[in-house]
Queue: 3 jobs
Job 1
Amino acid sequence: MTKTAFDESHVLHELKHNLPSQQALKDFIHHNSLHAFQHMKFYDAIFKASKIFGFQVHLQLGEYRELYKTGRIRADVLQMVVANKKGDVDGWKRNLLDKEYDTINHPRIGQLRRLWKDVYHLDLDNKVHPALFRILCAFLDQGISIKSFPITNKPFIESIRELERKSHVSFFKTKPIKKKFIAGDYSIPELLKTIVGKEEYFEQYLFDQQFAHHGWSGFVSAVEDNPQTLLDRKSITLKELVEFELLMELDALNANLKKGWQPLTTHSVTPPLDLFADVKRTEFSEVIELWQDAFEWSYYDSVLKGILMAGTAHPDLPGRKAIGTQSLLARELVKDSTSSKGFLLSSHLLH
């Protein structure tokens, strides 16, 4: 993100890596939407993902405190967690229970494109997304729609271009943009130059744009990589989606603001963000980590004790060897759960 030269292929690759790779539902089992962070330690990963993309990765501070008041987070477990991780039990418990924090997350994604609202009072997403999503739905339809898409066996852009040529109505509100689209006289860098301005902001803008609808973008990316996941195969690429959306944005800007607008970075007073720069841990993130560990261990402790009791109370039941093995593990974990070593061992095994 610190480079000034825009590398289209690299940015598209990075987008595909970070977007959720959502397959068609006929093949869906589970997808980790934070897969781009799974090489990191758990808490480092979720806090970084939250800061970059604005994902909600934990309960609100007030919710943890309410769970503590109602007993769902046990006082003895919270005491154990704080003692094992911090040592200063009294000080950190005051932070956990009483201290006020700024809990509003300001994600890096979206900071650049928000200038359309701040400067021009124009909700560009509202002007573009409804039509864009309907077009994508119609093109990718798998036989659910009453009327099928009129162009078949052609890639996305070619299909839309043929519709524009043959139809009396247009997806575009301005004739110059329609003409540009039909002629194919455009490229991602050229469109970004017109809309955004300075080249060093291009990558940030595209991340802002595509993560404004990361579900759709992730689905298009998945279809591009694995078209066989659709029963009725469609040819579409993330690059085509980016190009078409940029054209629709340019069309919306010209239609709504006429000549009364300038490239977005004309109004930017901050340098481009390094979206994936390291995120510093704060006292608030440490508080959330302690609360989450205590919340989980309030349940782990009960489960482990249940396994222990099942193994000792019914030694002659079928499967007693398996229960006995589980009981031995549980006994050791519960026995040592008050020590740092035992807690860390248990956490490692249970995660």
Note: The two ends are 34 Å apart (CA to CA).
Job 2
Amino acid sequence: MEVPRNRVLVLATPSTVNSVAINCLKSQCDVQEVDSIDKAIELIKGDHFTAIFSEAADFLPLERALISQQANLILNTIGEGVCIVDREGAPTG
């Protein structure tokens, strides 16, 4: 019996820098890639994701959008919190 794969949402613009990390995620999870906060919010409204990943640069616009009810939905969906890591996987900040 096949073990169900975790669903992961990746908010990132397509780039060769991201491709290695995203391909690694794809080998272990079902990955849904989006390139905008609005698209991420739409998906979160209708689906469940085990994890949500974004580039550190993409997090600032997301943080600014927290004023809106839609962005607040993302943080409520995350539940446990947010950890920002660099390309090597080390926590930033």
Note: The first helix runs from residue 16 to 28.
Job 3
Amino acid sequence: MKQVNNHILPSLGLDSGGQKVSEDTACRWLAKLGYELKEVKKGIYVDGHEQEDVVAYCKEFLTAFRANEWYALLGLAKQSLMRHQVTPHIYR
């Protein structure tokens, strides 16, 4: 609650008149915004990565990536060659 009272509200330009936001009030705000209180066990990554639109985007991205993979390899080869180029010196 320190974060809400000391940083977030002042950064939004809100003056609470010295009153503090309680934990219950903050929980009600979050619920109205659509957040749910859940217990998430350690080591489990949860973000909706299996939703239909995300899966479709991943397939589209991978198809485009595979189509351009050769160009990426050429770019890496050019970078490798450029790192090993010797700058010519002119001696007089």
Note: The mean pLDDT is 77.
